[in-house]
Design goal:
There is one protein chain. This protein has helices at about 10, 40-45, 100-110, 120-125, 135-145, 150-160, 160-185, 195-215, 215-225, 240-245, 290-305, 320, 365-375, 390-410, 415-435, 440-450; strands spanning about 15-20, 30-35, 55-65, 70-80, 90-95, 115, 225-235, 265-270, 275-280, 310-315, 330-340, 355. The protein is an alpha/beta fold. The strands form two sheets. The chain has a six-stranded mixed sheet. Helix 7 runs antiparallel to helix 8 and helix 7 (about 160-185) packs antiparallel against helix 15 (about 415-435).
Amino acid sequence: MRPSQVPAEIMGGDTIAALATAGGTGAVALIRVSGPDAAAVVSAACGSSPEWPDRKAVLRTIRDAEGGVIDQVLVTFFHGPRSYTGEPVAEVATHGGRFVTSQVLRRLLDCGARSAGPGEFTERAFFNGKLDLTQAEAVMDLISAQSHLALRAAHEQLEGRLGQRTEGLREELIGVVAQLEAWIDFPEEDIDPATGEALLARMASVTEGIRSLLSTADQGRVLREGLRTVICGLPNAGKSSLLNALLGEDRAIVSDAAGTTRDTIEEMLVVEGIPLRVVDTAGLRVAEGEIEEEGIRRTRKEAGRADLLIVVADASLSPDDALPGDLPDAPRTIRVLNKVDLGIHPQWNDVEDLQVSCVDGAGLGELRGRIRELAEFGEADWGEHSVAINARHRDRLKRAEEALDRAADSLRAQADPEIVALDLRESLDLLGEIAGRVDTEEILGSIFSQFCIGK
């Protein structure tokens, strides 16, 4: 990152403060202070100028402007650059009441700090070289992780594995660009066929690495957002009962009256380590009224967007009477025979569907296993050095791949080296944007605005 790209407030060296723990009442709250004047700000709030040993918690008293006690706190000081942000950082542990926490923070602000913006601590860590951009994004993934797999993926990205892989591809491409630009500087040296093939081979190696990362995009989306799972079927098939059984709580209203569910109900849960965004839908039938008709329209819309479709049928009815006839295709589909505790219609005997009872829990374990199988990844499939790219990474990688393909086509067509180099530089810059090695100012605001204040 060039100095000209660093925001003025960071270059100017101001000191920021914010609550780093969740709002509300608890035993302890943590306030983070970062910047060159962190020690002076906390000292002023204590009404004295004590020594601040590195990485050692010390008991201090925060006082108001008149010297009155606000709270006794534990202060841990981290001298830069051996801190999260790379600057001097003080972490002030207060009692966790809303009022006392707000008063301590107000006192720190009165003593010279300013309120931190969303993600500003992590943004400073990025600008000070403590994290690359992929690691900064991994901080948010870590906070929002909802399964062991998502947590593991976030940790691996936080360790820098994605940044290392994209930087490795970028360094390989830098060698190609350097060799090509040498011919541009010395035009009397033609690119002989053997050299051209060698350049194409190196470019193909980079392309293969890009495609390997792109192949993780779907896994990354599922880990961050959940596998979009839609439960659908005819009225009274037990769709809401199945949702409640998977959740382990009564989230959806269950009734023998057809048409009880009029709108979609969405919940997050984890099945066999896979995060699912489960949508319970209205029963598919000829609607009786405008409200139910709108619910059925939404059911079909959700089914069309599903990663996984769970079609629920009443096992006591014949297949013709139990299944809707015109469901859209989904990448993955599971058909479930529900209410098997009430008996199974003889026409289902030769059908290999999952048999489930939401009353006694029969078949639910098998259903969870089938979901994991269809999701196509789990703990056993997650490689030691795997990464899972997000939408921003995918966009840069896809565009880098396209630029590389254009460069390779131009080289095969024996186009001017300048044309080939132009596309190679574009690919190089796009790879650099992933980890923040080149101009990324236009995306920083978008990334860090998604962070919570205090992180």
